[in-house]
Amino acid sequence: MASSTVEKSPLAQSVQFLRGVGPQRAGALARLEVKTVGDLLRYYPRAWEDRRETPAPGVAPTQGPVVVRGRVVRARQIPAGIRVALFRATLSVPSWGGTVEVVWFKRPSRRYDVLEKLKEEVKPGADLWIVGKAEATLLRVREIHAEEHYAIDDPRCDLHVGRIVPVYSLTEGITARFLRETMAEALKAVGAVPEPLPPAVVRKRTFLTASQALAGIHFPRSQAEHEEARRRLAYEELLLLELAWVLKSRQTREALKSYGYEIRRRFLTPFREHLGFELTAAQKRVINEIFADMQGQHPMTRLLQGDVGSGKTVVAIATLLLAAENGYQGAFMAPTEILAEQHHWTLAKFLSGMDVRTALLTSRVPKREREKVLAEAAVGKIDIVLGTHALLEGDVQFKNLRVVVIDEQHRFGVRQRTTLRRKGPPMDMLVMTATPIPRTLALALYGDLHVSTLDEMPPGRAPVHTSRAGEGEAFEIVRREVKKGRQAYVVYPIIEESSRLDLKAAEAEFSRLRDSEFAGLRVELVHGQLPGKKKAQVMETFASGGYDVLVATPVIEVGVDVPNATVMVVQNADRFGLASLHQLRGRIGRGGHESFCLLVADPKTPEAQRRIASLCETADGFRIAEEDLKLRGPGEVLGTAQHGDLTLRLANLLTDADLLALAREDAEELLEADPPLQQPDHVALRERLLALYQRRWHAIDLA
Ligand code: ADP
Ligand code: MG
């Protein structure tokens, strides 16, 4: 609880309280979300630069900037162009046993005379630190191009040179020099930083204190100190995350469902009989796991992992039908309109002739229709509502929503998952993903949840051959397959579905292909900007064989299911991420016909080459996900929605797995001993927890 002494703590003071920070600088800092002294201290460097004195050339290889200390012997201005001014000095550097030339390239400024200032500061006899780039031959530095210089007798120069210095993200009006000096000022002004961690934890884990850690992260005196500080602060982030998860999952785990399910077979049996195929053993096992959870007295939180094409949709439908059989409603949320629409048809197909009422809710559903759906969902006339983010809106109400299924869940954040789940009493949730993630990451992203895995593909899948190809060769294969009665996708990278430029390029390509390469074939275009109805119509026609070639943007990346399609040509494949490519490839090879994924690409970076090579080498989604994590890191792979959930700045979920485990253990112990976190030693932690996660995640209830 915030007592008045807490409010007056130096951390809560405005940054203007610091020497050298006026309203203007405070305004600029606010753009970096730094408003209080506490915010400032938590504005961690994005990198560190080793600016300890550089040994004489030839002694050790130099990396990064050259840093020398010496006395100016001679200084002069050199005639140069209008755009640059040149200033040159000869510096005697005792530790190098000689002199070195230093050059300043300066852009003239209207506000003051740069050269005048340099002349004043760099005059013969002056003792200076120089930071710059070396123009060097193998054994001797000929010249240093100065980037910064400091007078040795400047009392603050030891913040900027002769040490490891912090590198911060900057913004207009905030220079590196100002930020370093202000940071030092803040550390000094605050003195002993109030300890957010319980002292018992600090002792048990032998961490640095908060003061030591903050000093060490901004101004480390050695690599070792830097790493120790980073670990302690990373742990802090992870502890807060795990506390949030333990609390949240405890809420779900301890909640009691006020209803039960019985397997009545009213819908499930006809569904199984009309499927047209046998469920795989993996599907049966997973459905059993889900039903057992649903029949338990606590709400289910289960993650279903299964590679692209492993048949997750059928499992989702079975889950929704168990609710429907018992007279309850279910919601099925997908990240894109195309996918939501596709699920809608799939349900219509599998449930035809059964008395299950379904409806679609996306932002493109016309107003009239939408109002009808809303009214019917609210009174329970609809059993299963499918949709996109549109389902989350406040006016979407249910009579008795009891189960929520979220497809391709990595596109949604915690807050979104929670929003849907809170449209009724404690209820069951199934989240599905084709991007398998390591156990530690799953823990960090979901707290505790149960994982089911579809580790078996439906039978009769033909292999997908993946290779790089020239455009001509790829189109030849398209024509050959179409002749056999098959269908093909040609996908263009669109980074922004809303970008006019990208769209125009795709449209132009479509015209070109229709009129030349695929003249005589039935070709159509689909992209995210098409009106929902048109898009649905194109997809439906393609699915029923009405087009031979579908030119598409990555809107078809997830979920689209057309078993007769056997070719996927990906144009500029080097512009796609690995997971996207794997998802795209998953659109083909679904109907038992040999299939071809052709990557038209000119990968320039080693990373792009590696992506393309990995895709050609393996079809195993788990290996691809692993590789993707290595190449891009969890932030990128999991998408911004989830990354934004975590508020991790120093912790890395891949490399700090050990810290994550400790944090988990400590979070459970703390909440066991003091569930509301109200003991004096825990209050600071409680406040930071609420500040960080309360709003972001939608309510963390501390008893
Ligand atoms: P994903 O796991 O990628 O969502 P889908 O649910 O879209 O996969 O399933 C891919 C295809 O496999 C669909 O055409 C679906 O009808 C089909 N399918 C699912 N289960 C089976 C099965 N047991 N036997 C044969 N085909 C199946
Ligand atoms: Mg799917």
Describe the structure.
- By secondary structure, the protein is of the alpha/beta class.
- It folds into five domains: 1-51 and 175-194; 54-162, Beta Barrel (OB fold (Dihydrolipoamide Acetyltransferase, E2P)); 196-254 and 666-703, no CATH class; 268-454, Rossmann fold (3-Layer(aba) Sandwich); 464-617, P-loop containing nucleotide triphosphate hydrolases (Rossmann fold, 3-Layer(aba) Sandwich).
- Helix 5 runs antiparallel to helix 7 and helix 7 crosses helix 8 (223-254).
- Residues 1-7 have low confidence and may be disordered.
- The structure holds adenosine-5'-diphosphate and magnesium ion.
Keywords:
703 residues, alpha/beta, OB fold (Dihydrolipoamide Acetyltransferase, E2P), 6-stranded parallel sheet, 23 helices, 18% strand, globular, disordered N terminus, binds adenosine-5'-diphosphate, binds magnesium ion
Write the layout of secondary structure elements.
Blueprint: H1 4-7, H2 23-31, H3 37-41, E1 47-51, E2 66-78, E3 85-93, E4 98-106, H4 114-121, E5 127-136, E6 141-151, E7 163-167, H5 176-190, H6 199-204, H7 210-218, H8 223-254, H9 268-274, H10 281-295, E8 301-306, H11 312-325, E9 329-333, H12 337-350, E10 358-361, H13 367-379, E11 384-387, E12 401-406, H14 414-421, E13 428-433, H15 439-446, E14 450-454, E15 464-468, H16 471-483, E16 487-491, H17 500-517, E17 523-526, H18 532-543, E18 549-552, E19 565-570, H19 578-585, E20 595-599, H20 606-617, H21 621-646, H22 657-673, H23 683-697
Parallel strand pairs: 4-6, 8-13, 8-14, 9-11, 9-12, 10-11, 12-13, 15-20, 16-18, 16-19, 17-18, 19-20
Antiparallel strand pairs: 1-7, 2-3, 2-5, 3-4, 5-6
Helix pairs in contact: 5-7, 7-8, 8-22, 8-23, 10-11, 12-18, 20-21
Bound molecules: adenosine-5'-diphosphate and magnesium ion.
Magnesium ion binds at residues 312-313, 407, 559.
